[in-house]
Design goal:
With 261 residues, the chain is an alpha/beta fold. The chain contains six helices and eleven strands. The strands form two sheets. A nine-stranded mixed β-sheet has the order 3-4-2-1-5-6-7-11-8, sandwiched between helices. A hairpin with a 5-residue loop joins strand 9 and strand 10. Helix 1 packs across helix 4 and helix 2 packs parallel to helix 3. The longest helix is centred in the middle third of the chain and has 17 residues. The termini are far apart.
Length: 261
């Protein structure tokens, strides 16, 4: 088995080291783990690709490369350059520092890497570690992801439909903000929406008086619908959300067809 891993926190991120250990568990002694990850942090870039300028890539060792681009760029580089003659069997993206539950999924570079792999026809899983008061200051904030990650990926692959038409599925996994021992279980959950909270900007000024904006996230513990990903994460559960690149609202499409005649 051959696995390609990437992330959006950058080549030196601790979550990528956790993901490498998860991947090595999955491939076993005879498998291969290859890394193509952003040279610099790319959080919040979504499914961005560097379409109008080239991406520099550097080999750091026999199985590790850093690319000056987004996670989706890194997947493209991995599939069509680094591993062009020996494609991977699976792409993993993460482990992200912070959750990609609810609306965060729409901004996530971690999910952007998995989405690109799915568009390329490969099974792909994005993994993210929720941060909260019970784990943010722990010696290993990624404890839940590290201890449960390989088993979760195995269960997803075992349950994946054997035949898929149209846009291929990819999977959004979020580990709860607790220690591995405190995880209550694994559930399939829909993507949620945190109510009454949005991304926003904060104004700041440089010493020279120039005006800048910092993007701010919303309250990560805001109320959501019961049973959705963010709700179940805050209750101590690992969530798995199957996703596709198809953004069509099919129920609304049917209603619109009726309305338009």
């Amino acid at each position: 088995m051959r696995i390609l891993i990437t992330n959006d926190d950058g080549i030196n991120a601790p979550g990528l080291k956790v993901l490498a250990r998860i991947a090595r568990d999955l491939v076993g002694p005879d498998g291969e783990v290859w890394t193509v990850a952003p040279a610099f942090e790319q959080s919040g870039v979504g499914h961005c690709i560097s379409y109008t300028h080239p991406t520099m890539i550097a080999k750091l060792d026999d199985h590790t490369f850093a690319a000056e681009g987004s996670p989706a760029d890194c997947v493209l580089a991995g599939l069509h350059d680094v591993l062009k003659d020996t494609p991977p069997d699976l792409v993993l993206s993460g482990v992200n520092r912070g959750n990609n539950s609810a609306e965060n999924a729409l901004y996530s570079g971690t999910l952007g890497g998995a989405l690109e792999a799915a568009l390329q026809g490969l099974p792909a899983v994005a993994l993210s570690q929720y941060y909260g008061p019970d784990n943010a200051l722990a010696d290993n904030p990624f404890d839940a992801a590290e201890r449960h990650g390989a088993a979760v990926v195995r269960r997803i692959l075992a349950a994946e439909p054997p035949r898929q038409t149209g846009y291929r599925l990819f999977y959004n996994v979020n580990f709860p903000p607790v220690s591995a021992a405190a995880v209550r279980g694994l559930v399939a959950a829909p993507q949620g929406l945190r109510r009454n909270t949005r991304f926003s900007v904060e104004v700041t000024h440089s010493p020279s008086g120039r005006r800048f904006l910092w993007v701010q996230g919303g309250d990560q513990r805001a109320e959501t619908e019961a049973g959705c990903d963010a709700d179940m994460n805050l209750k101590g559960y690992i969530t798995v959300t199957p996703m596709r690149a198809d953004l069509t609202d099919h129920a609304a499409l049917t209603a619109l067809r009726d309305a338009l005649g």
